[in-house]
Design a protein that fits this description.
The protein is an all-alpha fold. The chain contains 5 helices and no strands. Helix 3 (37-52) packs across helix 4.
Length: 129
């Protein structure tokens, strides 16, 4: 994650009505425990997209059924856009304003090896929507 992006947008998300517990869970690298149906669909779609650079049929269907084709495209676009912005800010080492402390804890990466996501991708390979 990008410290600057989180600093800039977390407050705005809270002002727009995001449950603070959801932000806290995400910031600490956990799946939020308490999400609305729409939030869970967006979280599942976005998380899988970032982890695998694709989505399963189940996550695609859930997003498509709830938000339609345009909504799915919007999810892909916003995830890609903020990924690009975050990489740019991270490479540039954009500082937080006024020496603010980084708002996100440093998360431990999972060890490489066989993961559930990789197993799902192998299983789903060749299946079409």
């Amino acid at each position: 994650m990008c410290q600057y992006e989180w600093f800039a947008h977390h407050r705005l998300a809270l002002e727009a009505g995001l449950d603070p517990a959801i932000g806290k869970d995400i910031a600490e690298g956990r799946r939020p425990r308490k999400m609305s149906r729409d939030e869970a669909i967006v979280y599942n779609f976005s998380r899988e997209l970032h982890q695998t650079h694709g989505v399963s049929d189940a996550n695609f269907k859930a997003a498509f059924d709830r938000f339609g084709e345009r909504g799915v495209m919007d999810l892909i676009a916003v995830n890609g856009y903020y990924g690009l912005v975050s990489m740019t800010l991270n490479v540039d080492r954009t500082p937080l304003p006024g020496g603010v402390a980084p708002p996100l804890p440093r998360l431990q990466r999972k060890a490489k090896g066989k993961s559930k996501a990789k197993a799902r991708r192998r299983k789903a390979k060749g299946k079409k929507r």
